[in-house]
């Protein structure tokens, strides 16, 4: 226990002043409770002075049995915290559902709320029947059962995963919530076998330069991956946040390419074909290329660049004047986030946010900034920097180069407008 | 990308040799696949040479719609991966269910499989009606709604939680699986408000020495916590692994005391009474004290000492001769795990295991050790050391001091017996 934590230290201290200052806030002086001006406080305080505390219904009767849920579920009072499915997209087998980022805390996305993007629906694969084939320009092709794959050495890492169209350039004005805008991003702890280990088993021929990954879904989604990535941090993943992959995430096995656009982390992985040239498959020609202003298209734009978004306060939420913690998420496909700056005056001035430790490479990083809102309308924004020195651009700066024809790889700063009544809305509008 | 990862480096290398050596194994020479002697391999290899790969049923028909699960669930093929409830305990409101540790990977326990220990069942609390009162030896008592609590500065940390009776001393011979033996331990990412922040708000009076925490369940579970812990790393938690706490974990708010025995992290928290002396409540007198051989009892034994267990291979699993990765979990209530040693010869010799990075204070630490089983019967064990230098004791060493009357705080080494047929069983038997 640190000296700083000794009771004496606290008693010597003007209430909360040290804590507020430590939080890097401008709120010198009075306590948080004062600044927050807790609305229910005066009314409820009487309860403490005048009577024993109210005994609620749930203390007067036994609760539900232990193990009444052998696989637990969220509280019924959280039934609205669900995946965010576009009204016109829910019935499609090629569509997406978004993580409700504005409802979540920390950096781990629970498996039940992890974003989805499917091209041929979600297959129900029997792991006993599933096989993973590694063939092509190799010395010793392999056909692996899931049990066999699990006998190789394993690793666990916390990595984000993000769809490359998160959101499309034309869509930035349409979203209302943080989920609507960048909910095609989630983060989990993945466990699997290093792809490098398997490629060493099969032995690469000298002409080997790419690996074509194929999924066992109805779309047979196919992407070409540079050999260098396959021999670096690529994983063959069978577990997510401790338990086996969910069907929506590629059960029983998926490719995971940390920092690359999500669709390349091929789900329901059945085939790795080692080749000399890319496959130029549908998903890397007709789709997932970036249209530029001059009519050309950028192909094989794999890496998701540095990005951040304020999740609280964010669109459709309402805040009160006084203390509000600004918090959100930042991530970069190129490595660690080294800093997040927050602006509470429409990007006129920027202040550094506090990053939750540990900051992990290619993982969500939670940032926080303590703020006293004076009740005047304003716009709040966050701006991420990664370990390569790259700084998240404004939408204006990004589109000045990329134009508006592009759909993929929009990592622009997201502005949130705060009205006089505390209503938070999309600052692009 | 490291030079080591360049394709040339791989081609120059006898298959897997570098990888095996890097893994610290004694398996010099032939590749992993050879050592593993993949059983299905010969049979299935023909498929690659002689015909295009088999196209399974799930590639010939569209899969389930996107968003068909607005809150996702595990695969139907994983329906047996559930909480482990004692047959005679399932119907009790005061009982426990265990995490199936032997089925899980990594360090995060998914919320659906987090262990449970309830004393009056699981209350269904309406967060809008719930209040948290902070009173007693304070200058300014507080009664907080959940919305008010969430307006204070927040933190997120990955911490383990463990029941103090995991397992009882007499129970070590009864368990068959890793879950049976130490499944009353789980690990998650918690988000909440530092209790220190709230205690600074209310202002401590000079006589303040303890804080009595009371739950809003039918048992009104009550524990006394030393003020020093409350001013150190204690949290008021409302989120677990990103989403709101599950009802089984204290929804809408619980106390979290990192490294302390689980029952002190009072769930459904309704009251924090700052006092000069402990409450000597039922759960710290009749229960949760440690009976010693001389008939005395140790009281207020808060900290969970360093512990580890091999989860794979473990009881009721079966292994084949050749390469097997030994993996498991280690943790300490006193801080970081600094090392885990593995013995594959019944504790005659010990070798260091590899610790998955990052190693976090008071969190599960995943360890791995590559092993080539020669097919002869043996006993495998793991032994953890924490940053204080404390080494996990054998059951014999522990009981030499503690005797067998005690039920709580058994952190002894767990032995797994491996028979000639590869069957793994409880080494205490």
From TrEMBL, chains A, B:
This is Sulfite dehydrogenase. Keywords: Membrane, Metal-binding, Molybdenum, Oxidoreductase, Transmembrane, Transmembrane helix. Residues 119-279 form the Oxidoreductase molybdopterin-binding domain. Its cofactor is Mo-molybdopterin. The keyword Nucleus does not apply. Gene3D superfamilies: 2.60.40.650, Oxidoreductase, molybdopterin-binding domain (3.90.420.10). InterPro entries: Ig_E-set, MoCF_OxRdtse_dimer, Mopterin_OxRdtase_euk, OxRdtase_Mopterin-bd_dom, OxRdtase_Mopterin-bd_sf, Sulfite_DH_SoxC, TAT_signal. The chain crosses the membrane at residues 20-40. Its EC number is 1.8.2.1. NCBIfam families: sulfite_DH_soxC (TIGR04555). Residues 300-413 form the Moybdenum cofactor oxidoreductase dimerisation domain. The keyword Cell membrane does not apply. It is an enzyme of class 1 (oxidoreductase). PANTHER family: SULFITE OXIDASE, MITOCHONDRIAL, SULFITE REDUCTASE. GO terms for molecular function: sulfite dehydrogenase activity.
